[in-house]
Write a structure and sequence with these properties.
about 140 residues; mainly alpha; about 75% helix; elongated
């Protein structure tokens, strides 16, 4: 589809985001099993435990996947500037990778550490894509 070709980086970013969530899913399941919790429950909230951090990283990726997909779809459908959509989508995925790495490794504090900064940066990239889609839709 030639009309989607200018957004190829955004499409790849969307696929990479999905892969991150998909790869975290079995790791989170293993972590929950090792914590002895039943399906649907989370390990005890203890940031010092790696299993809890993996479970939270997966939950956060799953919680934000729909938003990421929605802003990419809106930007493509409204014809927002492909360069910026691609750049912001790529940076959002990079921020997600950093966030997952920092979270799973337990780098920094549970609140307002490097993980929070990576999350906010990715959130800001998604916000910018959404704003571009809104303005492109009214143009």
């Amino acid at each position: 589809m030639e009309i989607l070709a200018p957004y190829s980086h955004a499409a790849v970013s969307l696929a990479l985001y999905a892969l991150i969530a998909l790869l975290l899913a079995p790791l989170a399941g293993i972590a929950r099993d090792r914590a002895g919790v039943t399906p649907g429950q989370r390990p005890p909230a203890d940031y010092a435990r790696k299993g809890y951090r993996i479970s939270r990283a997966h939950a956060n990726a799953a919680e934000n996947a729909g938003i990421f997909a929605a802003v990419i779809a809106a930007a493509v459908l409204t014809g927002a500037a492909p360069f910026w959509v691609n750049l912001f989508a790529s940076l959002a995925v990079l921020a997600r990778v950093v966030m997952v790495w920092v979270h799973v490794q337990g780098i920094g504090s549970a609140n307002m550490g490097p993980r929070s900064f990576a999350y906010v940066f990715g959130w800001l990239m998604m916000l910018l894509i959404a704003i571009m889609a809104v303005f492109a839709g009214f143009a």
